[in-house]
């Protein structure tokens, strides 16, 4: 499949890439949060029936319940970040949950967000009114603490020595909204009108303005062949202007720089 084409390298990050156990957990020494990278195991299907290849998750605040508001509209869902009960682990509770998609690469240029954005599907796919990459990439190009000053380029591209393989991922908050009494969400949430998903929706909705989802974050990592861990940079949008649905960012920053995560069980 395409996942094993010449520019991709999934196995460096998920040694077992197929079947129900095709995922790998990572954790920083002494930390309580987990980063879960999925291969081709079918995880991550969203309520649009897409997203089940290369799913990426971040779990934090185990057994904390921060709740989830009901009756929230589509645009207000950006602020309705919900706790998560893991359906594959007896519905154990995590207070903070983010999700998105990832790809592994052999080359830093392919792994740059400038090139990997569409590979991962950071924006919702198959809808020109939902592609918020142009303005997002413009903001990411202004990254004061990135090695090149540009977060659209992989931050480990200039590492000395360079890693053997490159990871790029996106993470968005888990949110829920109200789809009304005629919704068809039973198979996903157990409630007809409750729609929950990784919020990569445009900030002002699918109205053609394609304003970026400012809550989305990005993870760049590098791994060396034979290692059982990797070093990473977590990137967020920075330099906020305005508020609410009218806020915008004209920069980015490495929020957590050069941290190490080990392969572990989850």
Structural write-up:
This protein is mostly beta strands. The longest helix is centred in the middle third of the chain and has 8 residues, at 113-120. A hairpin with a 5-residue loop joins strand 8 and strand 9. The radius of gyration is 18 Å and the shape is globular. The chain has helices spanning 108-111, 113-120, 133-140, 186-189, and strands at 23-27, 34-38, 55-62, 84-86, 92-105, 165-178, 194-198, 217-223, 229-241, 248-264. The two termini are 27 Å apart. The protein contains four helices and ten strands, in the order E-E-E-E-E-H-H-H-E-H-E-E-E-E. The protein has an eight-stranded antiparallel barrel with strand order 1-2-3-5-6-8-9-10.
Radius of gyration: 18 Å
**Percent range of helical residues:** under 10%
Run of helices and strands = EEEEEHHHEHEEEE
Alpha-carbon distance between the two ends: 27 Å
Identify the strand order in the major beta sheet.
Answer: 1-2-3-5-6-8-9-10
Largest sheet: 8 strands, antiparallel, barrel
- Based on helices, strands and strand pairing, what is the structural class? mainly beta
- Low-confidence runs: none
Question: Overall 3D geometry?
Answer: globular
pLDDT averaged residue by residue: 91
Strand content: 25-35%
* Tally of strands: 10
- Structure annotation, total helices: 4
Task: Give a quick precis of the structure.
The chain has helices at residues 108-111, 113-120, 133-140, 186-189; strands at 23-27, 34-38, 55-62, 84-86, 92-105, 165-178, 194-198, 217-223, 229-241, 248-264. The protein is mainly beta. Strand 1 and strand 2 (34-38) form a beta hairpin.
